[in-house]
Write a structure and sequence with these properties.
This protein is mostly helical. The chain has eleven helices and no strands. It has helices at 4-24, 28-41, 50-66, 88-97, 101-114, 118-126, 129-134, 140-143, 146-155, 173-182, 184-191. Helix 10 packs across helix 11.
Length: 214
């Protein structure tokens, strides 16, 4: 479960450190001391290490520069509501792999829509899902219901990545089937939403269609 108040606190903390750095020329030594002071003030509270304080600054700077906030002053920018719905560790993963805010927002929205774990997010980042799916131009999401729109968009994924398979370059169809079933979870995740594993070599029965006579 996401602690939205904690995410908002980290945003506020990063924002204030940025402002103080600009106004009072804070250096790393001041931020290190701030970490010690906060831990002394809030004993037992996680996320107050010097390393995490640096992450709060990185996350705030990354998103505040890339999003449209109008004429708001640096110290008055509030996080978008979507920022309060995924865990903090996901943000750190995303900014470590994304240099573009549009790409980062793609992974944030994917995480929200699919309720992604950190492992699922890491897998998507590693497989460059944005390059294969996110940059595909379509209006599916505008003209189709949400679920169907997502499924249609995922069809445009190019190419599918099955790097997790450990089979020889020249393989028989049966070897590929066996390898996919052995790692069925990752296979379904790669296919995207709306797919389920029913069984191997299932017979597909289609209802008979009546004939029309003109």
């Amino acid at each position: 479960m996401v602690d939205s108040a904690l995410i908002e606190f980290y945003w506020w903390l990063g924002q204030n450190i940025v402002v103080k750095k600009r106004e009072h020329k804070w250096g790393d030594s001041v931020v290190k001391q701030l970490s010690l002071d906060l831990k002394a003030e809030f004993p037992g509270q996680k996320g107050l290490s010097y390393t995490n304080l640096k992450y709060t600054v990185q996350v705030y700077m990354f998103y505040s520069k890339g999003l449209e906030f109008g004429q708001q002053a640096v110290g008055q920018i509030k996080p978008p509501k979507s920022f309060l719905t995924i865990p903090w560790g996901h943000y750190i993963q995303i900014i470590s792999k994304c240099k573009d805010v549009r790409k980062a927002l793609f992974y944030i929205n994917k995480t929200i829509d699919g309720n992604w774990s950190r492992n699922r997010l890491t897998s998507a980042l590693k497989s460059k899902l944005y390059a294969r799916e996110g940059s595909a131009v379509s209006n599916f999401k505008d003209i189709l219901p949400t679920v169907q729109g997502q499924m249609a968009q995922e069809i445009l994924k190019d190419p599918y990545s099955f790097d997790f398979l450990t089979i020889r370059e020249e393989y028989h169809e049966k070897e590929l089937e066996d390898a996919l079933v052995r790692d069925i979870t990752r296979f379904l995740l790669e296919l995207g939403n709306g797919f389920a594993f029913v069984g191997r070599q299932m017979e597909l029965r289609m209802p008979a269609l009546g004939c029309c006579h003109l």
